[in-house]
Amino acid sequence: MSDPSRPLRILHVVQGYLPAVGGTERVIQRISEELVRQFGDTVSVFTTDAYSAEAFSRPSLPRLETGWWHHRGVAVRRFHTVRAFGPLLNQIQKVAWRLQILGNEHMRTLYGGPIVPGLARAIAASPADIVASSSFPLAHMYAALRGARAARRPCVFLGGLHPDDRWGYERSRIHRAIKRIDRYVAYTEFEKRFVVEHGADPARISVVPLGVDAEPFLAARPAEARQRLGIGPGGPVVGFVGQLGVHKGVATLIEAMPGVWARYPGAWLVIAGHRTTYLRRLETMLATLPVAMRERVVKIEDFPDALRPDLFAALDILAYPSGYESYGLSFLEAWAAGKPVVGCRRGAVGDVVEDERDGLLVPYDDAAALTNAVLRLGADPAWARALGAAGRRRVRDRHTWSEVARKIREVYLAAVDGAPGRGGRAGGGLAEAVRADQRAATARP
After folding, report:
1. Residue 335 resides in a domain
2. Structural domains counted in the chain
3. 64-68, 188-192, 324-328, 422-426: lowest mean pLDDT where?
4. How much is the average pLDDT of 27-44?
5. Are 112 and 56 within 8 A, CB to CB?
6. Mean pLDDT taken over the chain
7. What is the DSSP string of 108-157?
8. Does residue 118 form part of some domain?
């Protein structure tokens, strides 16, 4: 086995990176920074010029500047994405999906993007010891695999599957690609079971739950946070903090709140996230509420990460009724702030939230069940605080980014060493090269 203390040259390939928004973007950012900080690894990131994945098919949305950028020891290269064909591909993939035309998954992949000419070649030309990429179903995953194989480098995929999204994840090419890589990191046992059921080798899958920087959330003061955010007296304060996408369940939360206000007229609703095209639909829903209810809604868009601790400190309850999650970083952030959570009994979330121990689980897209969950927590504040405290202990003991990065690096080292299996051949060649480098260094006078 190669020396685990030897710095690695790591290439992360991801759809977006700071200041781009999204859970995967934040995960790769924090893992990259921790690998540099803890282990002195050389970490590069290949990414796109998009602020969010929805921009891959929408030519009108703004772009980030392409080229190299350095942040906290991580070298980031942004590539130009081709978006002009997005509207046409959208129409083609809609028809192909509706009629289940053979090969429709390829049309969906092209439409979803990112289309990045030369990405696989750039990956192959990188001097990295290992290539790691996240997240499906986006097209850069296949470019990462092609580039790694062309350069005979080991390839690792990090989790990101939420298979209840049939349009996104009912694609056989995803599982063919997973079978070809050296290692796979699943965020939950649910995800591991899913990829194994579709043919992945369980010996090459590691489960690594995600992390959170808990200290800022511990330090935030609820009363001061509410004042800064414009939340007046009353309660409970129920909130959603996350990406404002169609699958995140924010519409269900808005539908659930009139039932909460009927019991607690002084309750507040906080909706905080980065602006997306779906936000117009949410604003239309909010506009239909009675004036007395609208006055108790605080909407916060495009906030900086530094505001996240205040957002969670201000809440009494995080309501995060998303239907498609590979994990759910917002649950960890709420727990770091000592708050109870409400999630959906769907997909990976059931492996993250322990029902009636650190939060509550309800059926997806069920506004009445969500209303009842919030009312239960509101009726028993001591119980709600106990759930939040259990979540805080869990975060403290199991979910630090330093520990996540250490476990991820162990997976990378295993891939470099080339353990037996279909994906291990390229890794084995690299491991021998690493050992040759070490022998050469030892022999120098």
Report:
1. yes
2. 2
3. 422-426
4. 98
5. yes
6. 92
7. HHHHH----TTHHHHHHHS--SEEEEE-TTSTHHHHHHHHHHHTT--EEE
8. yes
Condensed to tens digits (0 to 9), the pLDDT of residues 72-106 reads 999 999 999 999 999 999 999 999 999 999 999 99
Q: Is 169 helix (H, G, I), strand (E, B) or coil?
A: helix
Q: pLDDT tens, 388-413? A: 999 999 999 999 999 999 999 999 99
pLDDT tops 60 at residue 325: yes
Q: Which residue has the tokens 């650190």?
A: 358
Looking at the structure, do residues 411 and 388 belong to the same domain, yes or no? Answer: no
Q: How many angstroms separate the CA atoms of 360 and 116, rounded?
A: 41
Residue 352 token pair? 């993250």
Query: Does one domain contain both 420 and 370?
Result: no
Decide: residue 427, CB within 10 A, 0-12 exposed, 13-18 middle, 19+ buried.
buried
d(CA 441, CA 209): 37
Contacts of 256 (CB under 8 A, 6+ apart): 319, 367, 368, 370, 371, 374
**Residue located via tokens 């209840």:** 164
Residue pLDDT, tens place only, 100-140: 999 999 999 999 999 999 999 999 999 999 999 999 999 99
In this structure, are 195 and 318 located in the same domain? no
Instruction: Give the CATH number of the domain where residue 429 resides.
Output: 3.40.50.2000
Nearest to 288 by CA among 264, 257, 243: 257
Count of beta carbons in the 10 Å neighbourhood of residue 65: 7
Q: Which domain holds residue 150?
A: 9-211+400-443
Q: How many CB atoms lie within 10 A of CB 68?
A: 9
Residues 254 and 154 in one domain: no
Residue 233 and residue 142 in one domain? no
- Would the pTM count as exceeding 0.85? yes
DSSP-derived 3-state class of residue 317? strand
267 and 328 both lie in a single domain = yes
